Amino acid sequence: MEKNVNFKKNMINFGVGTIGRDMVYSMVSMYFLVFITEAVGVSDATLFQITTIMLGARVFDAFNDPIMGVIVDNTHSKYGKYKPWITIGIFLSGIVAFLLFTTFNLRGTSYLIYFAVLYILWGLSWTMNDIAYWSMMPSLSYDQKEREEIGAFARISANIGLFIVVGSVIPLTNMLGDLTGSLERGFTIFMGVLVVIMIIFQMFTVFGVKETKIIGGEDLTKTTLKGMIRALTKNDQLLVTAIAMALFMMGYVTTTGFGVYYFKYVFLNENMYSIFAVVLGVSQIIALLVFPKFSDRFSRKKLYGGSIVMIIIGYILFFFAPSNIIFVGAAGIFLFAGQAFIQLLMLVFLADTIEYGHLKLGKRNESVTFAIQPFINKLGAAIASAIVGYTLIISGINSLGDGEVLGERGQLILKTAMMVLPMILIILSFIIYNKKYIIDERTYTKILEDLILREEGQKGIEERMGLDQDE
Prior knowledge:
The protein is mainly alpha-helical. It has helices spanning 7-40, 44-62, 65-73, 83-100, 108-136, 144-180, 183-208, 225-233, 236-257, 259-265, 272-297, 300-320, 325-361, 366-370, 372-394, 408-436, 441-470.
């Protein structure tokens, strides 16, 4: 299949659009608990309530994602189906994200109510943008290699945004806290800057991306809730991908969620976290850059299996590594390079289930299908946040006073939750994929050929009907 003329332009404008998105998302998903426990300071009881609210709100919001997918699929504006929701969602979620890192000195019950309302609004507004943004990707190309390149560049851009935040959040919030006299205000200012960056980069996607023509004929009939359920439950390959993604994301987000706490309470050098983050960011970006080279030589199944081996090696090294940045850094490189490959593979697996569902069910549901990704991310993040929050209480970290050191029992609890549990979840993810996922390169090519034949058959029927009416 020859490359479409807008490929490079689309790849760049789509990819860079997520740099700022992932900056803001990583702050909310990874560092809100850090903001609450380290900057604001709350009791174990309040932390338990906040963690429980986060779990409930994220699960509730995750189930809204397919509904948002239906809304996007049914949008037929002069600006397309994706861009209106990308634009509305990015402005609303930016405002709410900023307010999440602004407490207005509220405490106790009043703060819990304030937080609960904002956290639900954050999820709903982010969903508008996230569903529309990722649903756009399959519409940019039908070529598997082009999709891999677009997906790789988008993941590279996302990781650039993610690791800029991971590498800078501790030193910059501390610096801003010193300048303003409050670490809490330092976090607020930092988030405000990230929101502005997010909006600027999203405009590249809104104004720069051009969609391609749909293969298999465009169905303008509306997707109903019944149709949504059918698209999600009758597409067996989508279900397999969803389960595998869910297990992987639970493990991945759980590990990253403990990063600051590991370096502060186990490694005993919080400042090394930023250096570690830069090393991991570079390793993930390099992994994504070389992915196309490996993709040309190995099947996706072999790439997935090799990535799992790297991750297992990384977790084992991480668990037994002494408090030495060389050992911990080496473990992190194995771990996060393998995870970079799997994140990209999951993205293209999901994209390919769209054509599979189109052929099997007779209707193309990009947005409903890609609603699975944020659904899985939110569900995974919800469970991961709960694991992190409750572990901070059980291990005794949240109740430690200034200068107190975490005991061996607490360290073991943290390391088990951070490394052992995620490793088990990620291995289960691979087992499910390996046994149930069937869309390889040959199968996908056959699916496209059948869709083209179906489209030609529909045109022939329409032409014959036209001739009959003329007679």
